[in-house]
Structure formats: structure tokens, C-alpha cells
Amino acid sequence: MANGTGVAGASAATASEGAFLEVAGLGVTFGGLTALSGFGLNLEQGRLLGIIGPNGAGKTTLFNLLTGLVRPTTGSVVLEGRDITGAKPHVLADAGVARTFQNIRNIRGLSVIDNVKVALGLHESPSLLSTIFFTPAYRSGQFRTEQKARTLLQLLNLDDVRNLPGDGLPYGAQRRLEIACALALEPKLLLLDEPAAGMNPTETIELMELIKRVHREFGLTIMLIEHNVHFIMNTCERIQVLNYGQLIADGEPSYIRKHPAVIEAYLGAGAHDA
Ligand SMILES: Nc1ncnc2c1ncn2[C@@H]1O[C@H](COP(=O)(O)OP(=O)(O)OP(=O)(O)O)[C@@H](O)[C@H]1O
User: What number does the ligand 1 atom closest to the CA of 30 have?
Assistant: First the structure.
């Protein structure tokens, strides 16, 4: 990958053969407000991409477009050669796109492990008959689900609290649970929306390491929105910067850190220390 591109190159990604995710000219307007415009991205499989930008820059809108919560006004999204532009959320989930939200959405009152099991159940549902008659196939399915849930909880350092209510956990642990549930869907593309929001510095460092580990061990393609510049500079291989719905820069952390438009728009004078 090139070190980076400026405004022109960033907003006009050209289709590259075999790219895992190809987004071109993506935009949406709400009433008179253009939340995102001419967004382009060619992402290879297995990359870890950071998205930064000031409040209201269009970051969450981009994720909403990629997960079908918002339909684009312009542009196209192609995942593994398949045009998924404007597809509904369940179609995109089936295509392998999973996400977490800025506001934690674990299921109230449900234990940690049951939250993960519900997510696993969304991915692989048993047949109605096997459930009704409690067949050996159903029971072995349940055993597999339990094993998978435990494996995910161990990875996310949540196994010790698996029987506690998910919504009663400390904030950082709830965020990790949300990631566990997203991983349970066995995604190809994982979108993390401000996973470190509200975390203390220790939790943030732990999460940084965890995301790197998940990326490494699952070989997942991850897109990560984050306001914490230190976090993103130290976690991501490539960073895209949005401002007022426009992509203003795209490149490696070292390139982004020094990019004048990025410094002016977002990072501020402290950016060089990030
Ligand atoms: N459904 C919607 N209807 C109307 N306006 C919207 C909608 N969703 C987003 N917007 C507007 O689009 C712009 C971009 O919002 P978005 O949430 O994508 O920004 P963001 O970069 O994620 O900001 P933050 O860092 O504060 O979460 C904002 O001005 C927001 O108010």
C-alpha cells in the first residue's frame, strides 16, 4: 500500500481487481444535509483500517451505510465481488458483515454467556423438528454452541463472569461482550464503532491489544471508528480521515499524523506526540 493519498486520490478510489471491499462514490443526504459524499475505499482482505474525524464527520453514517441501516443516495459497495449496495441488514449479516455500536446493545437481563449464545444462534439455527423432539443432533448442537461461546468468552477475557448478567458488567467488559457477540456471527468484515468510548486508560490499552489479537488470530478484516488518536495510531495499519462528510486523507499512521489537512481538521497541535 502507498503511504497515503490526499483529497483527490482519497475520494476517488478506483476499482482494483480482487479487492475484498470496494466502495465507490458512496454518499447519503438527509433532507438538506450531506452526511457523507463521494466516499471511496478499496480494502484488501485481512486489513485493519481506522476511521477518524471530528464529531459529525460522517463516520457512523459510513458504518450505517455498510450495514444496511441507511440506504445510500449515491455510490456502490461491492464485497468479495458481490454488489451489496443498499442491501438490507439481514442480507449484509448473511454476507458476513457484523458491527458493534457506539451505544452498547447487549441484551438486558441475559447472562454474559447467553448473550453470546443468542448471537451464535442467529448464525446457525437448528431445525424446528430437531428442537421440538430434542434429538441427539440438537443436543450435540447445543454442546457445540456452549463450547464456541466459552472459546469466545475466553478470548475476550469474559469466561470468569459468564454467568453474570451482561448489562451489570463494568463498562469495559460490556464493550468486550459486544465484540464477542459480533464475532459469534463469524463475520468476514467486522465494524467496530468507538469500542474504547468511556473506557479508562488501562481498559483502553487492554482493548487495543485485544483487537490486534482478534485481527491476528481470526485473520479478520476490521474497520474501526475511534476518537482516541493514540489508540488508532497504535492499532491500525491504515487510517482514513473524514471531515464534513468528505474523505480528506487515507494512508498509514505515519502519513496521517503529519498530514496538514488532518492536523487542521482533527488532530490539533498534539498530533505529533500521538
Ligand atoms: N438519520 C439521520 N438523519 C438526519 N441526520 C443524520 C442522520 N444520521 C446522521 N445524521 C447527521 O449526519 C452527520 C454525520 O453524522 P455521523 O453520526 O455519521 O457523524 P460521526 O462522524 O459518526 O460523529 P460522532 O463522532 O459525533 O459520532 C451529522 O450532522 C448528523 O447529525
Answer: 4
